[in-house]
Amino acid sequence: MHKSTRIAAVCGLVWIASIAMVALLASLLPLRSPVAIDLSHMLVPPNAQSWAGTDQLGRDVLSRLIFSARESLLVVLGATSLSILLGTVLGCAAGYLGGIADRLLGVLIDVSWSVPFIVFIVLIVSVTGVRPATLILSIGLLNWVTSARVFRAQAATIRRQDFVRTARAYGYGEWQIVFRTVLPNLRSTVLTLAAYGAVEVLTLETGLAFIGLSLPAPTPTWGGMLADGASYFAAAWWIVAGATIAVTLTLASFQVIARRFERDLFNQSRA
């Protein structure tokens, strides 16, 4: 069981690393422009010249898949990093300091939970316009609550440990203790929550793109490709198939990586 989990996590890391590298180097690869329209080659099935076929406007599907990965991974990385950073800072401060800070965070979490998350993001994107920065900020600033609750509980537990008392006895200040003893002990938690957060952000970004609330045309996105290909599925299944495979493999990769980090965290807590 442990070996299969490890192998799955390695495969997931290889996929994420591979797709990230290809997305970063997309402009250097011998690919057609993802927005180049060729009406003489509409809905061409996969062949030797166009490995993944073309869409309803004659655009190369493989090129659009690769360039879509760059946009999607940018949003995933930015929004996940922002939400984990906010959750870590607020949760650790509340859990370690306790008192008023803990009560204020409790109120803030309760208020945040009462806000319809997806509806609020859709509202922000609709009002401010769709840009990568808008998606990153709107998702990241609203998706910190879960990580903050976890870090709050763990920081409250860590502050009662003997090594924290020892650090105080040696004259370390509270913030020195937080950065030197509390945060290093939360490393596994950060990795686990970041991987699970990436799953949530990618799912949300793909859903927003599917309903037309992600990056505007002609910028390619996986969700946008799914929406475009749905109308042509009977005649051109490869448009939906390519985007579906890309999203599924990426989500599954983040999921198995998160499971591996979660298992390591569980073993660490038992040790």
Write the layout of secondary structure elements.
Elements: H1 2-24, H2 61-97, H3 99-114, H4 117-128, H5 132-142, H6 145-158, H7 162-169, H8 174-182, H9 187-210, H10 222-230, H11 237-270
Helix pairs in contact: 1-2, 1-11, 2-3, 2-5, 2-6, 2-9, 2-11, 3-6, 4-5, 7-8, 9-10, 9-11, 10-11
Note down, in words, how this protein is organized.
Helices cover 73% and strands 0% of the residues. It is elongated and about 75 Å long. The mean pLDDT is 86. By secondary structure, the protein is mainly α. Helix 3 (99-114) runs antiparallel to helix 6 (145-158) and helix 9 (187-210) runs antiparallel to helix 11 (237-270). The protein is built from eleven helices and no strands. It has a single domain (2-270), classed as Orthogonal Bundle (MetI-like fold), CATH 1.10.3720.10.
